[in-house]
Amino acid sequence: MYLKVSAKILLSSVLIVIVYLTIALTWASLSVEYLLTEEAIANEESILTIKQNDILLKIKDPTFYEHAGLDLSQGQGLTTITSSLARDIFLFRVKLPGIKGSFQSFYRGVFNCCKKIDLGRDMMALILNKNLTKELQLQLYVSSSYMGSYDGRQIRGLPAAAETYFNKPLAELSDDEFIALVAMLKAPNYFHPEKGAKHLESRIYKIKKILAGTCKPDGWFDTEYKHCTSGA
Question: Which pTM does this prediction carry?
Fold first, then answer.
């Protein structure tokens, strides 16, 4: 009897998840065109230098050009550049009208509540990847990612962060300066050049070891690199 009840509960849970993801996929498919028309997409020309591009992808999304929006690469965790961008585009940047807006509010609430286990964003990432080239995804990610607050204002995008924190254009940053910006992307106010300088310094050191190949992520979900210390 207990096994039958457990099986029914499990089956019901699976069906609920399937329905939830199907609705999320449908909603994202119907909303993506409107949302992308609201984005300031200039062209596919890279904002980054070739070396900066390589550094960013090795740390944030090693198989960016190969995956369909989702990936579980070594050290990738559950978030790709595509899924990070999908979260912002579908849930936070533009308010959708009507019934689509109601679903948007619902999915935003689910994400805010349960972001570590919410699979709705994954459906949005799949749809975004089908409707936006990799080059444009990367351009939007680089130009619009939240990069902490400074003097009471939000800093958006790596170009603005370069000017704010290093007083120079993004293309003129040294490798160490650019790595600092990449390090900030994980938690911009925690790894802040002023408010979290010690935390930032520690993460920069670990990222350098990853880039140099002297330390590797410890499993699929390791984005902390806690083992990449001086003794690693």
Answer: 0.86
